[in-house]
Design the sequence.
């Protein structure tokens, strides 16, 4: 049911963990639907220098979290804000239809983390 | 890679003796048992022999056994057939909140058709209070439907007591015994059951065959209309090979059931104790008293992690189990059974069912106990709920319930 890329990111997730001195943190999802994603950012000079995640969720939730970290690193905040859940799913060669609406929240978590950075900065 | 199958409550491999018994009917003995000629005669005896084998396992007369295509058909037939057969005598059904969807969704459909349904609650251990059942009975009640054993938790319900209550109140009693038959003794006479449903593929027969016990004299409207098969109770050309397989599986299940149940129970207990010793912060789902659960079933929630990701990781190590998480149920809600037991929602998402069977060995169990703890630890370290610094009240409850 999952693509090879999903299984790759699920079984060897990239950038798992927390950033101690993160300057942007975002969390989306809730316990009742079974998916919670948390993204930690280290932003310097408007660029995402480091990114890590922690996720409670299914295979798709973990794989999209891992994928979004790879896609976002090195990007400017403006570029990162343009990343969509759809783009993350496509980068994974697609997700099963049932997973598109419930477990495909990684870009949202990234955007929340960037918003958090902007708010704390100002 | 090792392949360890611990999902016997989902389905079972076909037993080699069962396959052996079936093969002639997939090769040269192709006749229709309803035909009068030699080809029909060749197979009609086999269908009747299978009927006797099913009857013997559940202690009824062969004439009271009707072959079906699956458990869901049996449950639909029992419930819809009763309401149609007893038309005008009442419009109230009593069932439980932890039934299989074959019963629950049939009842929901009937609610839409104007029937009243009472869904009995269960306690945190998943058990029924028989006082609730007695109180739910009205003059309109025509059917009580309670499963013999629960597919998710393995909880065994007090079918004999419920049978007595139903008989006393002259209410028909149906039990979905798909998970109980073959695993524990099932006696329809002793339990005063009127309708009992069983399924072949849960007991070493192939998929696509089942049976329903219909107590003699129970008026039941047919679900599938057509030819005169099964004494006009269920139309459709017999699935001869499947029926022969079901009979053979029932015969095997009846032989040495106590020994095989004791053996599988010992392995299940080993798995249960091993997980309790090796993995902190877990919750057993189901009745804490092991005698009140099927000997093969263990349902456990691993706090802070989600069931599907645990299943996928176990699958990568060759272990097949199942989960009550929403992701694996195909809906947004986690298991309705655990929901009815008021299991906290993240724990319901993390529930994992191990169901053992005749092929399970001690080596298999020890392998699971070796592989599982590091998987759980790795997923926990990835989880934002684990070792959270500031816990919300809701999450505190998650942890408290896990202990």
Sequence:
């Amino acid at each position: 049911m999952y693509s090879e890329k999903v299984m790759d990111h699920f079984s060897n997730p990239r950038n798992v963990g927390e950033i101690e001195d993160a300057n942007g943190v975002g969390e989306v999802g809730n316990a009742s639907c079974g998916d919670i994603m948390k993204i930690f950012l280290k932003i310097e000079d408007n660029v995402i220098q480091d990114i890590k995640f922690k996720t409670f969720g299914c295979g798709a939730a973990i794989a999209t979290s891992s994928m979004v970290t790879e896609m976002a690193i090195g990007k400017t905040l403006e570029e990162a804000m343009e990343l969509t859940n759809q783009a993350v799913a496509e980068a994974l060669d697609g997700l099963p239809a049932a997973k598109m609406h419930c477990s495909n929240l990684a870009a949202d978590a990234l955007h929340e983390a960037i918003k958090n950075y902007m708010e704390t900065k100002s | 890679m090792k392949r360890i199958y611990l999902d016997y409550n989902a389905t079972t491999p076909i037993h080699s003796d069962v396959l052996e018994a079936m093969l002639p009917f997939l090769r040269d003995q192709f006749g229709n048992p309803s035909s009068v000629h030699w080809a029909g005669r060749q197979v009609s005896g086999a269908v009747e022999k299978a009927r006797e084998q099913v009857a013997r396992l559940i202690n009824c007369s062969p004439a009271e056994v009707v072959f079906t295509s699956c458990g869901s058909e049996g449950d639909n037939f029992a419930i819809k057939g009763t309401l149609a057969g007893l038309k005008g005598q009442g419009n109230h059904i009593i069932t439980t909140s932890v039934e299989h969807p074959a019963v629950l969704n049939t009842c929901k459909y009937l609610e839409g058709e104007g029937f009243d349904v009472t869904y009995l609650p269960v306690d945190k251990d998943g058990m029924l209070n028989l006082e609730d059942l007695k109180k739910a009975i009205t003059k309109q009640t025509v059917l009580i439907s309670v499963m013999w054993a629960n597919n998710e938790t393995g909880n065994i319900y007090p079918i004999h007591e419920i049978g007595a209550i139903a008989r006393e109140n002259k209410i028909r009693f149906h039990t979905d015994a798909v998970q109980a038959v073959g695993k524990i003794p099932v006696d329809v006479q002793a339990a005063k059951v009127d309708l009992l449903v069983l399924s072949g593929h849960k007991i070493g027969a192939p998929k696509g065959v089942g049976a329903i016990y219909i107590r003699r004299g129970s008026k039941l409207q047919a679900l599938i209309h057509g030819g005169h098969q099964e004494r006009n109770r269920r139309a459709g050309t017999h699935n001869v090979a499947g029926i022969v397989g079901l009979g053979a599986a029932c015969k095997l299940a009846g032989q040495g059931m106590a020994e095989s149940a004791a053996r599988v129970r010992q392995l299940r207990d080993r798995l249960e104790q091993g997980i309790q010793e090796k993995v902190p912060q877990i919750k057993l789902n189901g009745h804490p008293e092991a005698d009140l659960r099927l000997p093969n079933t263990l349902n456990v929630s691993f706090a802070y992690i989600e069931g599907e990701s645990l299943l996928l990781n176990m699958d990568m190590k060759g272990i097949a189990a199942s989960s009550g998480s929403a992701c694996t149920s195909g809906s947004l809600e986690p298991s309705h059974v655990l929901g009815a037991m008021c299991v906290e929602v993240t724990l319901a998402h993390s529930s994992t069912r191990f169901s053992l069977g005749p092929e399970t060995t001690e080596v298999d169990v020890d392998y699971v106990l070796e592989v599982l703890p590091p998987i759980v630890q790795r997923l926990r370290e990835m989880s934002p709920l684990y070792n959270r610094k500031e816990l919300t009240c809701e999450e505190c409850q998650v942890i408290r319930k896990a202990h």
In short: The mean pLDDT of chain A is 94.
